[in-house]
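User: Here's a chain of 143 residues. Predict its fold as tokens.
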Amino acid sequence: MNLFKKVLSRSFIRKVVLFGVTGGIATLIDLAFFNLFFKLTSVFVLSRILGILISIIFNFNFNRNVTFRAKDGSIGKQGIKFLVLYGISMSLNVLVSKGAYSLMEPSTLSANIAAVLGLAISIPVSFFGALFWVFRKPISKKS
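Assistant: Prediction complete.
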């Protein structure tokens, strides 16, 4: 199956939509906890990391069980790959959002704008990493 047909397949579109829904919910979880921790501590980087980590727990479970239907895979191997992927994704998120925040006037609104910019970078990295590495189904050998 060529790449164009694969991208237009129902399976791929379903994964994109479900990943988007999962990402939307995870973003709300991320931003809710980020705002809670930022309001309590005013420590930007710590608040970003905690918001992201809480959303990662939700993300792994929903993507494994619903989006990519990868329950048959080894949860240990998937978990390790997922943590590596999200470590990379979280690092990009924090670097971008901290960089953006450092260019703005300090405020809660600026912190949220910076957080969204970090998410805009980390979400595509997470999707393609999950699709092609973490939850990839093994290629079956036809005899």
